[in-house]
Write a structure and sequence with these properties.
Layout (H helix, E strand, L loop, with lengths): L1 H19 L3 H19 L2 H21 L5 H23 L4 H6 L2 H12 L8 H19 L1
Helix pairs in contact: 1-2, 1-7, 2-3, 2-7, 3-4, 4-6, 4-7, 6-7
Length: about 140
């Protein structure tokens, strides 16, 4: 239940952040991530994993390959996305190292909080990073509780 609450609230925050910017690519990606979060809240597990991971992978690819995105922004979005993709796949496939990957969610959360306070400037894609970091927080909380 904790994961649903975290994802639901942060999906709304991410959508609000996306609508305040004029970046159509990351806005569409944010809406896809939010849809994946709400599909998870509805309880459709397998569709959520594939939907959410697909849009997280899209964010990863956009962070790496899109022109006009500054280098620190690219690196931050790519790292946040990479760790969450890895953890979601490990949870879905029930790997043996799931517990280690749950605690590795501290890395994307640290990067996200550094972006919020301004240490790492994320000018594009912060709305995507918000929803992905919320998933990282939910994975971490589920590992602790």
């Amino acid at each position: 239940m904790t994961k649903e609450i975290i994802l639901g609230i942060m999906a709304l925050v991410g959508i609000g952040m996306a609508l305040s910017k004029r970046d159509i690519v990351f806005t569409i990606t944010t809406f896809g991530l939010a849809a994946g979060a709400y599909i998870f809240i509805l309880g459709i597990q397998t569709i959520n994993i594939s939907f959410f991971v697909a849009f997280t992978l899209l964010t990863f690819l956009l962070a790496i390959g899109q022109k006009g995105v500054p280098a620190p922004n690219r690196l931050a979005l790519a790292l946040i996305s990479f760790f969450v993709i890895l953890a979601e796949m490990a949870i879905y496939q029930e790997w043996n190292s799931v517990d280690t990957l749950r605690y590795a969610m501290l890395i994307p959360l640290l990067i996200y909080f550094m972006a919020l306070i301004g240490s790492i400037p994320i000018k594009r894609g912060l709305s995507c990073a918000t929803i992905i970091a919320a998933d990282a927080l939910a994975i971490l909380v589920k590992g602790i509780v």
